[in-house]
Request: fold
Amino acid sequence: MPEMKSIMENWQKFVIKEEQNWVTWRMLSDTIEFIRDQKEGADTAQRQQKLAKLGGKSLLKLAASLTGPIGALIDIGMDSVEVMTDMVKVYATADDAKTRNNPFLDLFNLDDGFEDLIDDKLEDQFVEKMLAEIPRHIQSNPDEAIPDFDQVIQTWLPTLNLSGTTNNNVAKTGN
Reply:
């Protein structure tokens, strides 16, 4: 029995480390507010401490990854939902090279392999579906991890009636 306890304790440490790479809707929203406050010139020390407590160094890295061209999407007058909507619009169908070095933006990006397999109209329909769900996620499930769009589309496609068939699947090609 002591061996099992040791295994479970080590597994817990592993699971906690793995989950630290996840970003929740609340984390993203708080990060956007942090960047907006910085742009307004507000004292952000307190918010930075909150982010550090909420997600540790990984969340502060997220904030850093959202500066530069991505930070330009964050207007002072925009709320978090508007910013996330703009991020999805810009990056959902962007070339993989634009999001490859930013694991957060890569969540919103459909891999080019999927885009090659899926009709553009269907791809647009999927992006619109995801855009419509952002406010609900932020309000109802703020502590839920933001799902990888590649996984979501693989779950969504089989639910559609495409040319009289359902249960259609797609597998990513390429890398």
About this structure: Residues 11-20 have pLDDT under 50 and may be disordered. The radius of gyration is 18 Å.
